[in-house]
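Aim 2 progress update. The chain analyzed this quarter is reproduced below.
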Amino acid sequence: MNKIYNRAEFMLSAPTLAHAPADDGYEVAFAGRSNAGKSSALNVLTGIKGLARTSKTPGRTQLLNFFRLDDQRRLVDLPGYGYAKVPAQVKRDWQRELGHYLCQRRSLQGLVLIMDIRHPLTAHDTQMLDWCAQAGMPVHVLLSKCDKLKRGPAQNTLLAVRKSLAEKIPGATVQLFSALQHQGVEELRQRLGQWLKCGE
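Predicted structure tokens:
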């Protein structure tokens, strides 16, 4: 199953849903607050350094970036949200497009929501979860940068987020993740494999 991720390649960047690839097959999207570790998670997941551009400047990813796994399967890097220096109009445009994408994209099988474990469940994360709940979208949360916390506090945060998710989106799952230490990569691949129908 890992081989399919190693074959990932950039397809295109879409400023709006109208510019996205044909809405068929299976797709999983990655979302998260700017600098939560979204691009790093994609790079570690695929084992391809630099597949998704990481940046020291939050908010750089302002497009829907599509990555092809095979003819029927794609990963999507959604615009990072919550960065203060992004103009208000751009933020509103992002929110509108994200809402359209989550509600209208038939091929979208699930959303991986990435949160910095030190700052989970921000107002923007909660907004994203609300959209997913309204759209009936399956959600898997990565508590990223878990190497920044000791085991005890990390487990406490995991349990707290799991409890909060259960109240918002029954069936949503959450895990610890560290791109730096490659922690949680196999667990993530297994979840994606279910959504992308990799066993079929």
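Residues 102 and 132 are 7 Å apart (CA to CA). The beta strands are 9-14, 26-32, 64-70, 73-77, 108-116, 139-144, 173-176. These observations will guide the mutagenesis experiments scheduled for the next reporting period.
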